[in-house]
Records
---
Amino acid sequence: MPIFMFIALPILLVLLTNALTLRAAALIGWLAGVGYFTLALSWIVQPFLVDAAKDGWMAPFALVLMAGGLALFWAAAFATSAFVSPKGHALAYCLSGFWILFEYARSTIFTGFPWALIGYGWIETPIAQNAAWAGPHGLSLITLFAGVSLAISLPRSLLISGLLVGVMWGFGLWRMPESAAPRDDNFIVRLVQPNADQSLKWDQDWVAKFYQRQLDYSAAKTAIQPDVVIWPETSVPFILSGSQDAMGEIAASARPARAILGIRELLGDPGQEKLFNSLALLDENGTVTARYDKHHLVPFGEYIPFAAWLSRFNIGSLTAENLFGFSAGGGPRLMQDQGIPPFLPLICYEAIFPNAMQAPEGRAEWLLQVTNDAWFGKLTGPYQHLAQARMRAIEQGLPLARSANTGISAMIDPYGRITHKIDLGVAGFIDAPLAKPLPPTFYSRFGDIPALLAALVLIGYAVAARRIHKPLTTTDD
């Protein structure tokens, strides 16, 4: 992916430089965004194909509307850049800065959707290690600046861009040891992957098979027994409350290890119950010692915005339960218990939010993501989701354990490297040692503030350095 960025970005700057109107500038950004997000979000049609006869007709509309909507942020960045600095090398600075500001807006407003940030393209290279300092938006800013600069004074810009990439690559190589340091307590995590296809996950003929498969994997004896056994998101077909017998059975299968599982919970007075997507930590007898409720829900997947108004339309099947879906939990929290190092739980979609990795109770020693990526299909979606989880490990300097329903389950070290995994579409389990956490990273302390300030500095420089040009108009005169 990086090679394509360094081809596309200078072309986009040339097109923007030659745009005659603000409308044309916005159109260039919007079309670029539509192409980018159509490719990046092609997996979004998969949830509609689980029940294709009922929901399949909506799949192309979902992709078109999603890509077109997200592309509006790019259109705004291009139009604003053209208005502030219509010509010259200052436009490269301006575009890089505004692009990041609008990408940050995309990541935060309306609950945010920071999927497919440009900086993620470096995840398979040492450059990804710079996210420990700059975070995903800072990494995206450097990438954009290095890319668009290639369109200006090619020999000099090649030198500048090459120097930026070379320094980041060198830093990444310097930062990564051959392997992450092990914990002193040699804590072992077992990740369970039942490989339950979404079309079969709640089928009455299959639920017992998937449940038993997870029990068998939990009880499997190996040379080094685990300290904790982790089941994926909504891994069982029942509600947490009132399922003490099942909890006891799960705990017994994992014993002497502790069990952690994704499960639904229903709370509240009769007629006013609220459904939660939860994570439960069990003791050796199956008693819940800690529970976390997912707080960052997926719009139109786990809840429907404006549900009361939309209740007149037959689109309830798009939510996990019904039109009103899940309720949101109280926010990030640290989970821990005797013998379990404190960890930050992340349920599925929550792992894509880099600015939500801090709990009020303090710093975690590891991150735990449970997910059901069966919704994402078998092409790009699960791999993109895994890449973003790996970036969270780098940013926070923490190992991340990932248990996925159909894949990809993995143990990720604090440098974002996969040390153990179960491939997509495979049933099984893995036992993996938990790495020792690194000291708090620069990004974990300051978040996106430095990247946003750097974007503003670039814009300020562009404004100060620009030459006098005829401003672009809003009409095609």
---
Amino acid sequence: VVSSAGVVGRISNVAGGYADVTLTVDPRSSIVAIVQRNRARGIVQGVGNDNDYDMRVSYLLRRDAVRPGDVVVTSGVGGTFPPDLLLGRIATVDDQSFGLFQQVVVEPGVDFSRIEEVFVIVGREGN
């Protein structure tokens, strides 16, 4: 499920004329993503805070130089989303002096408090 502002989420259940959507900001959501500027790869997961709609990028290597403002898009890996759909922009980077991975927070491209219209991407026959 997408909007003109980016990825909204994925359909988790369909009943009658309705569908439940797991939003990208939900802690149960995970999407393989890349940083558009340098093609660094990680997994975007929802944080699930009551007060905001942030996401985090897990498994983003410390050696991958990312910075606030970098655009994060879908990678196309896994077949759920096509490549290069907007997920959001990096809000903060905590490049700790230990460990393999950075702590990166992403602000979604979609304003979930004001969303009015979405589009459903359906797969092709046989996919």
---
Amino acid sequence: MDAQLLATLKLMDAKTASIWLESLRDPEVLDYLLALSSNQLSGIWCLLSEVRRNRILALVPADVAVVWRAYLTLDSDSAGRLMERPAAAFPSDTLVSDVVAGLRESIKRTLITYVFATEADNKLVGIVTFRELLYADPSQTLADIMLRNPYALRPEMPLVDAMREVVKRHFPVYPVCTEDGTLIGQIRGQVLFEAQAIDISAQAGQLVGVEKEERLNTPWQRSFLSRYPWLMLNLLTAFIAGGVVSYFQGTIDSIALLAVFLPILAGQSGNTGCQALAVTLRGLTLGELSDKDVPKLLRKEGWLGFLNGVGVGVVAALAMYFYARAQHHPKALMLAGITMLSMIGSCVASGLAGASVPLTLKKLGADPATASSIFLTTATDVASMGLFLGLATLLLM
């Protein structure tokens, strides 16, 4: 196995890596897969061809095959996609001396934190730490020294739920068991945190239509194909905002100074919406936001939009007043009032939109972060420009 190629492989997204691995021989593919973290391994494994997977499964031990087959049945955001084979599992009636002898070679190849004690059909019944093994009598069995009924993760458990459990317990390793208690794998606490960090780092790109899986080494062709549709959607939504401005073209022609304040309103309302969007996405990511919390969230963001709108609206209104006076406009005070009302209304609408966009995407079954910034920008531009020009047309024309 080439160390440089392995380093390059670790920087690839799952799709690119799977395509590259398909060109290698089965033993080479297996060597590279075994050198990857469980998080990257599971993504690549599910994208390999079924024929290739079946050939590789014939080359791995049974306990590894169980884990790799499980990857195919699990959602990409489930905790089970991060599991690896149990590092050390023995029947509960095994003598301590036999366990120590059995681990003597294993610990040279694998980091082992706990010994898992099992019974019939590989049911997990306890765990043993190395400290207990060290002080135990060699004639004792694992059943004599094990911690019974240990906490275990379920393979289908959402990653966010698993993260909350990790935060509560702070164990270095967690056994993974099926509903009937069968031990099928383990997940290291560090891997859970790394996976969550990767998800969080990907959110910024998802907001503007960048695939979650795209990495620095993703080929430009795939990056183009994944990004271009979202840019076209952004162009379409920009035309919608442009259409609103075009509808009030007569008002802008009559009162040209309105055009100066259009980007100011759009910028302020857009930032208000992004703040609400960030808080909502954080709540969804951490599992803090349930359906019953949605009305409370919307009330809060609407109220914050109003308060922020008043605060920035006063400053914007004063700026409009003095600018209109400098342009010798006879209705400078009316323009200032329209600016303030528009700023308040657009900030309220933007706060509500910032909270509503990710919630709507989630209801539709999409990732709440996917292109949410594109939809939010359209909502805030239409609300701010439409309200500002609409009020100016109604009150001044």
